[in-house]
Amino acid sequence: MSVKKNIILILCIFLFLSCSQKKDDALFNDPGKPGYGDTIITGSIGEPSNLIPILSSDSASHEVSSYIYNGLVKYDKNLNIIGDLAKSWDISKDNLSITFHLKKDVKWHDGKPFTAHDVMYTYRVIIDPKTPTAYSGDFKLVREAKVIDDYTFRATYSKPFAPALMSWGTSVLPAHLLESSDITASPLTRKPVGTGRYIFKEWIAGDRVLLSANNNYFEGRPYIDRYIMRIIPDSATMFLELKQYGIDMMGLTPLQSVRQTDYPKFKREFNKFKYLSFSYVYLGYNLKHKFFKDKGVRQAISYAINKQEIIDGVLLGQGVESTGPFKPDMWSYNGNVRKYEYNTEKALALLHEAGFKKGSDGILEKDGATFEFIVLVNQGNTVRIQCAELIQKRLSEIGIKVRIRVIEWASFINEFIDKKNFEAVILGWTIPRDPDIFDIWHSSKQGKKELNFISFENKEVDELLVKARHTLNKEERKKYYFRIQEILAEEQPYTFLFIPYANVAVHRRFKGIEPAPAGLMHNFEKWYVPEGQRRHKINAALSP
Amino acid sequence: MLRYLLKRCFFMIPMIFGITLISFVIIHLTPGEPDVMGGEMNPKVTKEVRERIRTLYGLDKPLHIQYYMWVKRFVKLDFGISFSQDRRPVIDKIKERIPVTISINLLSMSLIFLIGIPIGIYCARYKDSILDKGLTAFVFAGYAAPTFWIALLLMIFFGVYLDWLPISGLKSFNYEEFSPIGKVFDLTKHLALPICISAFGGLAGISRYMKNSLLEVLRQEYIVTAYAKGLPESMVLRKHALRNALLPVITILGLSVPGLIGGSVIFESIFSIPGMGQLFYMSVMSRDYPTIMGILVIGAFLTLLGNLIADIMYAVADPRIRIG
Question: Quick check: A26 pLDDT over 80?
Fold first, then answer.
């Protein structure tokens, strides 16, 4: 018996020793020199669905695809458009056609050269009615697409279209591998071939996707040898994996970022980066509602909501107040619009002006109807539910009764939003890189399944949206969007609540990371791990 | 016996169709439609795109025609192409995930039987002893405690705090570089927590079953006879009591067959195991009708098969059923 016990004890000690490596505190302080090597492991909640990016709409597929494919143009770190596969481009005098001059030294991962025919194929397959893609909208506006020679491609529009240039940032697909077959059944959906920084190696279903650096990349080989995306469907598990160094990078929730990673061991191993995310959260009103029709009522509610309290309480300070549909570090952002600081007196004054009187039970009344409404929130989104609770409390203080209703996403959309069967709703929008917000605010977009579901109608905004859409001059476009933001701030069809920060933890051995308006990943090929800090050695058999 | 069998098999056919019809209708009643799910709030997904995708999937046709089309494919054992964006054949998606789920369930089921039966025997033999009460409390704690909670606690303890076991997944990312022994060791390390935790939850059922059935047998007169003729206790237990007591337990095995392909969503998500539970959950969330139907049909078939096997086992054990 005692022998058995001893063996178990020795085994335990052995296990313990073999697993706990001693960590050197200063190891990661040295910035070192850029060099090739190491692997970065990221985690994703969802599994990629399809690695031909025009066929998928989930973020995991698009993230993997972004390493494998290139577009003709891309955004730099400050959201300016720069060439990617295109060396340069000319826009005709009438602003109707764009001629792209393509880079000549680009090769597909299988060694075949990249030419304008690939661009032509990509265009044709996107507009093909048999292709189940969600992204054909922008390309349907092309009147004529033409291959001028192997390295020149021209797209002509019937009307000047501002987002046109950037729409060519879509991933260009290899014509020689796809042309002869049905794209939806192509092996490339699971084994993509692109022109990008990384070459696809392996996809183990439900487990991970592995990419390795492209030695012949036209902008030079990326420093980090391999990229692995692990699929970890549970966010609590992912956070534990991060703490155990099972993954090197993860987006953190406010709670994780402010409280749960605030201890020395974590700080020794990870850097945290912060940038404004491309999204905002708002309280939207049904403008057909008998009370919300009145601009004064909407303004009053905006005064009565304490945005800073929401940011501090719900986001633990990880966000900024939002004043309109753009974020402050974009060129289209106008910071000089009407603001609604927390002020109950102004709110009450506006409500009295609108004809509301306090009833016997302390609730505001107008023409015998008490001011109460329901805020809809989608299930599972704790941030929005908590926002609703804070709004409920603040509005009850000025005599408006708010009830909160939490609904599952599919019925939320189908039964309430699509049928305009709601009074107020808390939702968020992704902020587009290109400021075209026509689909959300134009009065023609009120149909079923369209995005102006609050029924916003404003003649001036309509005109400005159309003008901005068909103007290619950035300064002129900016003027239109500045005016739109002024009107929206005055009208308050939404009470714009906040723009959250994206918080990302990256292991400290990765150097050269630069947070910018475009996010973190814009210079990923320049990230490196100095020699001596590398964690994963690569077996010869696996390197490219 | 043969006639009984044939009759049972024949009744399975309308049953399968009944199940598929009900499932089909219920799934189509839930709000939301495939592919547009997640694209509801995307300005790039225009109205025409939606219409096109609906036609592509045949969703513009009336429900009974959609069901007829599905049945037509199903009788040829063709489960169709998934509606999700990968557009792979449903059967491929299921084939890819079934081995993982079945092996994990087999392992945890063996563990349940290996530990649960001795616990049951012990508790029956030493009924009302302190250890019996302790064990009963232990197995019920396993039954009652939420899996995800225990899983997270153990992951924090063994994974982050002690750093002994990996937290999630089935293989390390550099698995291919290991020696064969290293591979086995790596797999064992990854599977240790998930299998132990899922077995922990299942102990209660089997050990209680064992205990009650053994207690029942121990009350029988022939046991008294066995004692009376002076047999040692271990002999009475093993030769006379246990054999009879195990019979009903074995039939539970038959009833566990459909459980083999069903995975738990929460459990698989927490451990990042690419199994059937996740596949089913994902396909429900994206309203991927062909995949949902595929999994349901296989599940229904296995349930019916399990019932059939259990019935046959009863029939073999008890002649009265055969005749009736």
Answer: no
Nearest CA in chain A to B170: A207
Asked if residues B175 and B186 have their Cβ atoms less than 8 Å apart, the reply is yes
Contact present, B181 and B175 (Cβ < 8 Å): no
Min Cα separation B317/chain A (Å): 43
Neighbours of A361 (CB within 10 A): 9
CA gap A333, A167 in Å, rounded? 21
Q: If you measure CA to CA, which chain A residue comes closest to B266? A: A234
Asked if residue A58 lies in contact with residue A49, where contact means CB atoms within 8 angstroms, the answer is yes
Yes or no: say if A530 and A506 are a contact pair by the CB < 8 Å rule: no
The strand pairing partners of A372, in sequence order, are: A401
A:B CB pairs within 8 Å: 150
CB contact under 8 A, B85 and A231: no
Residues composing chain B: 324
* pLDDT score at A20: 46
Pairing state between β A39-44 and A226-231: parallel
Query: Could you give the CA distance from residue A434 to residue A437 in angstroms, rounded to a whole number?
Result: 9
Question: What span, in angstroms and rounded, lies between the C-alpha atoms of A141 and A139?
Answer: 5
Distance from the Cα of residue A505 to its chain's centroid: 17
- CB of B41 within 8 Å of a chain A CB? The answer is yes
A226-231 vs A424-430, strand pairing mode: unpaired
pLDDT in tens, A103-139: 998 999 999 999 999 999 999 999 988 887 878 888 9
pLDDT of residue A84: 94
The number of beta carbons lying within 10 Å of the beta carbon of residue B44 is 16
pLDDT digits (tens, 9 = 90+) for B309-319: 777 777 776 66
Length of chain A: 544
Question: Within an 8 Å CB–CB cutoff, is residue B27 touching chain A?
Answer: no
Place of tokens 């021209």: A154
B269: left (phi over 0), alpha (psi -120 to 50) or beta: alpha
Name chain B contacts of A136, Cβ cutoff 8 Å. Answer: 46, 49
Provide the chain B residues 59-118 that lie in CB contact (below 8 A) with chain A.
84-87, 96-97, 100
Yes or no, beta carbons of A49 and B84 under 8 Å apart: yes
Give the CA count within 13 Å in the CB-facing half-sphere of A433.
Answer: 17
Tell me which residue of A99, A154, A166 sits closest to A469, measured CA to CA.
A166
Q: Which residue of B has its CA nearest to A439?
A: B43
**DSSP β-bridge partners for residue A407:** A378
CA distance A276 to A94: 37
Q: How far apart are CA A544 and CA B241, in angstroms?
A: 65
Any A CB within 8 A of B29 CB: no
Helix (H), strand (E) counts: chain B: 14, 0
Q: How many CB atoms lie within 10 A of CB B174?
A: 16
